[in-house]
Amino acid sequence: MKWLLLALLMSFLTCFSLHRVPLFHGKSARDILQEKGLLEKFLKDHPYDPCMKFEGACQIGSLESTEPMINYLDLSYFGAISLGNPPQSFTVIFDTGSSNLWVPSIYCSQKPCMIHHRFNPSQSSTFHTNDQYVSIQYGTGSMTGILGYDTLRLSNIVVQGQEFGLSLTEPGGFFSYCKFDGILGMGYPSLAAAGATTVFQNMMSQNLIPESLFSVYLSRTTGATGSEIIFGGVDSSHFTGPINWVPVTHEAYWQIEIQSVTINGQVVACSEGCPAIVDTGTSLLVGPSTPINNIQQGIGATLGYYGQYTINCNDMSSMPDVVFTINGYDFPLPASAYTLEVSCSSGFGITGGNLWILGDVFIREYYSIFDVGNNRVGLAKAI
């Protein structure tokens, strides 16, 4: 069963790492499980409905501008929104690595759409569209559709006339294995496909939030409540010590500069600096193959099945910190942060380009503030 658990985990990691592929070398775990006829049965036998499991987690209309999120296997974090009048409910990833809002629609008859909630325009009295086409390509997965406009509700915020995508196709079956319905992009407007107006742009222009920033806290316990995204504010109960501010170097993704990566005082990556993005839509912390392999060697991880690096969980107390120096500040990741304990595997992965991705492995350790007004990211030690 251990190989099955590891393969299943890798399939989920593929699903929840939207923006860069491949994370690992070799055949994907999803393909391996499909060949063996195991994955679909497992998912059918173990359905996951966050609205049922956590009472109140998918209700709209709290008294604060705080949106709760569900932690699914430490691999994805998603919350509830509604679109239309009367409201139609969906779960979405709040994704800082993209900028479009989209959900499945009744116009899509492919499997990824049919097994999720689908938006029905005819059931909303306020929906309208100009039938503009939109196509969004993620690192793993894609969608095509049309843009529409309707009322968006999340937390206690009501956004009027929000532009969003209604999927017509979700090619390749990728989203069949994802537990969320759609994606709500929190990147910069320049990243939005078809020039769509982002949700956060509308929040600011409609004066719905007190400050032009949002912040993210990701819980460390699988299935736990407590993860949240706050629109227009910061929750100081989720971090300790100072907020260290880092300038955004390119306004598309939330891109910053890593000055170095060290283990036991020795530089193992980014000796001359390297670009990175802070990305809630990616599960792991990923980078180019050579420096990531240096890190794997430095922490004592060993190459195992499916190209994944494994860790002896009994050795975690003696394993070194991996220290990321960013804008003159040190951000250490202890073994407890970079080890995926459900499979005793490494939380570091390989991307196909030169851009590092500080995904959920990093954000769980550091409360993250995305300051649109000042084009900067704030990082503080999460508690």
Describe the model:
It is a single chain. The N terminus is likely disordered. By secondary structure, the chain is an alpha+beta fold. 49% of the residues are buried. The longest helix is centred in the N-terminal third of the chain and has 15 residues. A six-stranded mixed β-barrel has the order 2-3-8-4-7-6. A six-stranded mixed beta sheet has the order 12-13-16-25-17-24. A four-stranded antiparallel beta sheet has the order 15-14-20-21. The two termini are 34 Å apart. The protein has two domains: 184 residues, Acid Proteases (Cathepsin D, subunit A, domain 1), CATH 2.40.70.10; 148 residues, Beta Barrel (Cathepsin D, subunit A, domain 1), CATH 2.40.70. α1 packs across α2. 17% of the residues lie in helices and 38% in strands.
Features:
Cathepsin D, subunit A, domain 1, 17% helix, six-stranded mixed β-barrel, 383 residues, 38% strand, disordered N terminus
Please summarize what this structure is:
The protein is of the alpha+beta class and 383 residues long. It is built from 9 helices and 27 strands.
Secondary-structure class: alpha+beta
Number of domains: 2
Helical percentage: 10-25%
Contiguous uncertain segments of 5+ residues: 1-12, 20-35, 45-64
The CATH H-level superfamily of the largest domain is Acid Proteases
Largest sheet features = 6 strands, mixed, barrel
Q: In total, how many beta strands?
A: 27
Strand order in the sheet with the most strands = 2-3-8-4-7-6
Strand content: 35-45%
**Number of discrete helical segments:** 9
What is the first-to-last residue Cα distance? 34 Å
CATH class of the largest domain: Mainly Beta
Name the overall outline: globular
Average residue-wise pLDDT: 86
Radius of gyration: 20 Å
The CATH level-2 architecture of the largest domain is identified as: Beta Barrel
CATH topology of the largest domain: Cathepsin D, subunit A, domain 1
